[in-house]
Amino acid sequence: HDAVVSAVINVDVRGPLISRHLYGHFAEHLGRCIYGGFYVGEDSDLPNEGGIRLDVVEALRALNIPNLRWPGGCFADEYHWMDGIGPKADRPVMVNTHWGNVEENNHFGTHEFMALCELLGAEPYISGNVGSGTVKEMSDWVEYLTREGDSPMVRLRKANGREEPWRVPFWGLGNEAWGCGGNMTAQQYAAEARRFGTYSRDHGGNKLYRIAAGANSGDYAWTETLMKQLGDLGCAYRPAGYMQALSVHYYTIPGTWQDKGDATAFGTDDYYRTMVQAARVDELLTGHSNVMDCYDPGRNVGLVLDEWGTWWNVEPGTNPGFLYQQNTLRDALVAGLHFDVFHRHAGRLVMANIAQTVNVLQAMILTDPDSGALVLTPTYHVFEMNKGHHDAASLRVDLPSGAPARTVGSAELTTVSLSASRKDDRVLVSLSNLDAAEPADVVLDLRGGSVTGVRARILTAANLQDHNTPEAPAAVAPRAHEQVTPTSAGLRVHLPAHSFVTVEASLA
Ligand code: AHR
């Protein structure tokens, strides 16, 4: 008999809004994410606009991607934006020392990134260079991008073909300052961030949302230092404040940094270890939020998880510096679990960015370097199936004690995960059965509204290792889920082993 779990959801008690920015993305100059991924150059045979690959844009538009973080990552702190403007032939070549020691010709720069955001309908999130850049360099970049009227940077922008300023809402003050972004202590970084934050000005109507480079995983002391040193939100004299949010990075790595595990050749034990690591994101967001609550009980400073996702050993035969990995049903379940956690933290968590969108780490899209064939990954489908949560009100889900669980080493993994939201007269419930072998049934006891219609979809496959390839692009793809039955106790949803399901209920 399947495990039966009852979940109570009061559809008329709306919780914090789930910002669409929790479904944000990240594109670094790393491996084949930008070059050969998003950007193939104007001379490519592949359909492109200004070198930007149009089938990639089309696939991502279907996700309504809300924002795109660029140019890094570690690359951000060695990127000098002035090298990436003007005629391409004149742009200097640099070495991407972090990622494969390859040459970077700077053909994808500020104008190309902003054009990409326009094509995607996504808001730009630019990470400025604190580690090896200057305050003036960052200040000039903001001016170049966002100022109207006349100024040295405005004249330069216009000379490069762009009359109107762009709108740039999200501004990162460096990246991983504790590591690749300068190996600073929290104190040192806080002092730097105050200077860089001060001179990253609001020009005209463009209001920057400054995001300070935050902690590595569970480094709560880092968050505490930033809250003490930067957390004040400004005053009449200095209205912008130094930062409006701070970030944290957390990757799901069940192995060690030396041997992270294989993306496709894994066993059941590896799978459960992965899920335990993924579920840890809840503990980390809670820990950082608790620290922030001490200094900012009104929740004015946002928490941004601007790098998350699985990190496996690279695919055999690929450049170790390019972080190219396959993406299976297991990755999709990791994503589903993260989103449930994000929805529960919607009161503090204002943005999250999966690493990374194309051809790097837990990607949405993989492209073949030879044929150019494009494949949508299982993770892509979770983003698509969860689109209805964007800017919806979170709904609390109460599970009784005794939900199915597995003991994994010293950890207990609850194997049924769900979250819900409401927008107008529509409730969306996302459900995951993380058990590798056993099905489960969840009875959704929706209170406070009567259900007039139901549409359910499922993402699963015969094996956790299944993934999509150019030869079998839909091996793991969503389909209609018929096993949703109205009962006197609520909607009974059958969850096969290792499956992700969305149930959309229309209310009277
Ligand atoms: O996403 C890959 C790298 O992981 C990023 O460049 C860095 O910020 C993190 O360590």
Computed over alpha carbons, the radius of gyration is: 23 Å
Instruction: Name the hetero compounds present.
Output: alpha-L-arabinofuranose
CATH domain class of the largest domain: Alpha Beta
* N- and C-termini, Cα separation: 34 Å
What is the overall silhouette? globular
**Biggest sheet, in brief?**
10 strands, mixed
Mean pLDDT: 95
CATH topology name of the largest domain, in short, is TIM Barrel
Tally of separate helices: 9
What share of the residues lie within helices? Answer: 10-25%
Going across the biggest sheet, name each strand in turn.
Answer: 23-22-26-20-19-16-1-21-25-24
Can you count the beta strands? 26
As for the number of domains, it is 2
Low-pLDDT stretches are none
Q: What is the beta-strand fraction?
A: 25-35%
CATH architecture descriptor of the largest domain: Alpha-Beta Barrel
The CATH H-level superfamily of the largest domain is Glycosidases
Q: Pairing-aware structural class of the strands and helices?
A: alpha/beta
EC number: 3.2.1.55
Keywords: Carbohydrate metabolism, Glycosidase, Hydrolase
GO molecular function: alpha-L-arabinofuranosidase activity
Catalytic activity: Hydrolysis of terminal non-reducing alpha-L-arabinofuranoside residues in alpha-L-arabinosides
